[in-house]
Write a structure and sequence with these properties.
The chain is of the alpha/beta class. 32% of the residues lie in helices and 16% in strands. It has a six-stranded parallel beta sheet with strand order 2-1-3-4-5-6, with helices on both faces. Helix 2 crosses helix 3. The chain is globular, with a radius of gyration of 15 Å. The model has no long low-confidence stretch (mean pLDDT 95).
Length: 188
């Protein structure tokens, strides 16, 4: 089996150069899904863009998604609608933003309600105890609903550039474990 292709799904406002997703892209050649509008994200547009990238035929299957913040919500929303979820074998979900928080509803109106269906592929959700965009309790609820293995990252904020994670080796280790799980799984 081929090594899984890795698609990076940044959240609202994209991931800047100091963000671990950008550092992984530069160091490992992972592909970022570029959205048409990073500042005014519309759920339907973002779902369509992910679907387009997955259907281009340029990716080696299997595909592993690596999502941060609103990118986690994108994975759940895409998986609840797409007929092509078989193309994805796993997802690493990091610091899911909660668009149903009062402070975020006005700026992310198309992202409610949050899909709470089990993802049809293996997943790990890493959350922080002091994330300003999603409480640890809510992140655990997402993990349970999506069927993701919950990993508590401790007091790491939003697990972004402000968290000063650098290349974030702990997250990369989680990704490598997911990739190994995908490669060891019998074909379906």
């Amino acid at each position: 089996m081929n090594t899984p292709s890795v698609l990076l799904l940044p959240g609202w406002k994209n991931s800047g150069p100091a963000h671990w997703q950008s550092r992984w892209e530069a160091a490992h050649g992972y592909q970022r899904v570029e959205q048409h509008d990073w500042l005014r994200p519309l759920r339907g547009d973002w779902i369509s863009r992910l679907e387009d990238v997955l259907l281009t035929g340029t990716l080696d299957e299997p595909v592993v998604l690596v999502a941060h913040s609103l990118g986690c919500q994108l994975v759940a929303a895409w998986a609840s609608h797409s007929k092509n979820t078989h193309r994805v074998k796993a997802a690493l979900l990091v610091a899911p933003g909660d668009p149903e928080r009062e402070a975020l509803r006005p700026v992310l109106p198309s992202w409610s309600p949050v899909p709470m269906q089990r993802l049809p592929f293996a997943s790990v959700l890493i959350g922080s105890q002091n994330d300003p965009y999603c409480s640890a309790e809510r992140a655990r609820q997402f993990a349970g609903a999506w069927g993701a293995h919950w990993v508590n990252a401790g007091l790491q904020g939003h697990l972004n550039a402000d968290s000063q994670l650098g290349d974030w080796p702990e997250g990369l280790a989680q990704l490598h474990a997911l990739q190994a799980q995908v490669q060891a799984a019998p074909p379906t």
